[in-house]
């Protein structure tokens, strides 16, 4: 899980019923059955994720915020200072606000917020306006489309892109490389990327982060079925599913699943789909890939970025990497 997607796949803008229906129909007919993680983040899902970030077992947000505030001056006040700062998956704007407040850039950079949630964008804009006098622009769209919009009107000066919250962890390795290469193509020489990525840690710690004792993450995952019942006239019975998270060491990822506890006949009217789930059959809802610090450097350099600095939080292993377009 990540800050706007914990763990997150590129997000779509406020989707139409047709988009949701088509995506659900395609994913649920895969083997194994899946649901796109971006649909975890409706209004209730986003609120539940904000609650997850406060849990003692989910230290990602706190670790990243410590690094942002400790190194803010180096990030936003370097020479040349960025003329614009773009956050992909801005969420509630708390991290951008913390960075600007601690860094106090003298150039008053323009802030561009890219997110699929209009409520999150409104909250983020208010948070950032409280600490920055620069112009604030909101883009309710995908990562790629947001970068394209900003690039088309970029003007002079350097761009700093923030991709935080271990959102990269939602991408499988091939997709992560493709995404970073596309980002590099959208930027120009001298532009920078600040990448926040969760690191491999003991399995027990990882599982507690994605299956907490209070059951908040379980509610977050099950809410995806609530959304399908509401938006696609499905008949999922939440009492017939349990949340499961496990560490796939070979793939270096945490997986979240919804496991059927009995044989169930599911109808999703809005997606023109009917299916039968066997006892123990699961629906895979999210992956969160974890990295090593050397793996991050190799990934970035292979996608056209040069690493300028990397900081590691010692309390909970997390990496914040500042890279520059070569």
Characterise the protein shown here.
Helices cover 37% and strands 24% of the residues. With 326 residues, the chain is an alpha/beta fold. The protein has 2 domains: 17-58 and 203-289; 60-198 and 292-325, Rossmann fold, CATH 3.40.50. Helix 3 runs parallel beside helix 5. The longest helix has 17 residues, at 216-232. Mean pLDDT is 91; it is low at 2-15.
List the helices and strands and how they pair.
Layout: H1 17-28, H2 43-53, H3 60-70, H4 72-76, E1 84-88, H5 94-103, E2 110-115, H6 118-129, E3 136-140, H7 143-152, E4 159-163, H8 173-186, E5 192-198, H9 203-210, H10 216-232, E6 241-248, E7 253-260, E8 264-268, E9 273-277, E10 282-289, H11 293-302, E11 305-313, E12 318-325
Parallel strand pairs: 1-2, 1-4, 2-3, 4-5
Antiparallel strand pairs: 5-12, 6-7, 7-10, 8-9, 11-12
Helix pairs in contact: 2-10, 3-5, 5-6, 7-8
Percent of residues in helices? 25-40%
> Strand order across the biggest sheet?
3-2-1-4-5-12-11
Please tell me the overall pLDDT. 91
Question: DSSP helix count?
Answer: 11
Strand content: 15-25%
The value of Rg in angstroms is: 20 Å
Low-pLDDT stretches: 2-15
* CATH A-level architecture of the largest domain: 3-Layer(aba) Sandwich
Structural class: alpha/beta
- State the fourth-level CATH superfamily of the largest domain: Vaccinia Virus protein VP39
- CATH C-level class of the largest domain is Alpha Beta
Please tell me what the overall shape is.
globular
Distance between the termini: 30 Å
**Oligomer category:** single chain
